[in-house]
Amino acid sequence: MIRTRFAPSPTGFLHIGGVRTALFSWAYARKHGGTFVLRVEDTDLERSTPESVKAILDGMHWVGLDYDEGPFYQTQRFDRYKAVIQQLLDTGHAYHCYMSKDELDALRAEQEARGEKPRYNRLWRPDAGKTLPPVPEGVAPVVRFRNPVGGSVVWEDAVKGRIEISNEELDDLIIARPDGSPTYNFCVVVDDWDMHITHVIRGDDHVNNTPRQINILKALGAPLPVYAHLPMILNENGQKMSKRRDAVSVVDYAGQGILPEALLNYLARLGWGHGDDEFFSMQQFVEWFDLENVSASPSRFNHEKLLWLNGLHLKAADLGRLAELVRPRLAESGIATDGGPRLEDVIALVRERVQDVNALARECDYFYRKRTADSADVEKHLAGDAPARMARFAERLAALPQWETEAIHGLFKPFCAEEGIKMGQLGMPLRVLVCGTTQTPSVDAVLALIGRDEVLRRLTA
Q: Contact 64/26 with Cβ under 8 angstroms?
């Protein structure tokens, strides 16, 4: 049975690249009827925070990536890690190293001065026939994994193809610190083993970790998962996305008015494709997804493309759900929808014009409170006899037996003919007086929704 996992470190917000990794892992499990596991890799005790854990869980909830098991926390599994470390020590696959940090720094400095790749010199590695230095007093050792010396680590990456790395390139990895706490690369191995992970789908910044993890798994006699390393997401300038320059947290996109399904739709297309299909649901994505069509090349983030997709999802979204998103945004501007037109009806009229929820809220505001018109619009459309003409048209509106779009529209042509004007000379002043803007949907539909009493109040104020 397929088992995938998403394993973020809680040292900040849920990164946009992490969401893409979670999405692909989730989709692969869903496609094959498998299990998707959430694991919080919080062994970095100095940087991991409860706030970051909450940000990860909230972010996963917001984008709608539901997990079947977890969240599991590495800090709650220390006893298990210590037991496996002892197992490696007992079988000779690990050893205690008493080299101090200062000694290691000095060794690396000497190696770099000679133009060599800095690495631990295996001083404390208990090889056959080797005499180890005397154990220094008062020094708490680290535990190092006894990495194979010869040969190579080879695996068929489900995205990148065959990868081979010589064991000579690999250090004897520290798997336990002097205080006994386990290190990241070791915990990952034990977790993937214990949780029966069959497919490790993660960013390609982990490629260098993979041979080390494979060697530890082999030393434990554990099965190897399939590895799939996803390409990096670059910003629009082709640079690695950074916290300083780019909106990289899912919270940022929620604040920008992006719908979660639109973000997932867009992220799915960053590094994967299904022909020319651009707009699709997550159900369709799961049906189509496979690792074979994931690109091995980095993808470039395009905010305009995201907005375009978001606009399509806005048009397809449930009106009641959109109302729940728009209402608090209007409230932040001091606009209450009580007593005005039904918000769902307003959204249905205006959502074709926008690409994000924030803009959708701005398009809704003049239905509940007239905007302050731009002075240039007032000068252009309400000069001369336009105010008097609007007063005459208000009388026609007041006399309508039924207040509905068709009835309002039926007034336009005869009134323009009587006044000897074009429709623009009626519609634009109407918009400015009633809405405070010249940019609205069809003015008859707008007036119908705002309501007779409020329209007449605004026209005669």
A: no
On whether the CB atoms of residues 408 and 447 are closer than 8 A, the answer is yes
10 Å Cβ neighbour count for 377? 17
Q: Which pLDDT value is given to residue 44?
A: 79
Strand partners, 156: 162
The CA-based angle 233-234-238, given to 5 degrees, is: 155
Residue in this structure with the two tokens 């006994």, named with its chain if needed: 180
Question: Measured between alpha carbons, how far is 240 from 393 in angstroms, rounded to an integer?
Answer: 59
pLDDT tens, residue by residue, 62-81: 999 999 999 999 999 999 99
Angstrom CA distances, 50 to 16, 31, 43, 249, 456, stand at 20, 32, 13, 17, 55
Query: Residue written as tokens 């990456």?
Result: 157
What is the spatial distance between Cα 63 and Cα 59, in angstroms, rounded to a whole number? 6
The residue type found at 354 is: V
0.90 surpassed by pTM: yes
Q: For residue 129, what are the contacts with CB-CB under 8 A and spacing of at least 6?
A: none
Q: How many CB atoms lie within 10 A of CB 60?
A: 23
Look up residue 399 and give its DSSP letter.
T
Q: Exposed, middle or buried: residue 286 (CB in 10 Å: 0-12, 13-18, 19+)?
A: middle
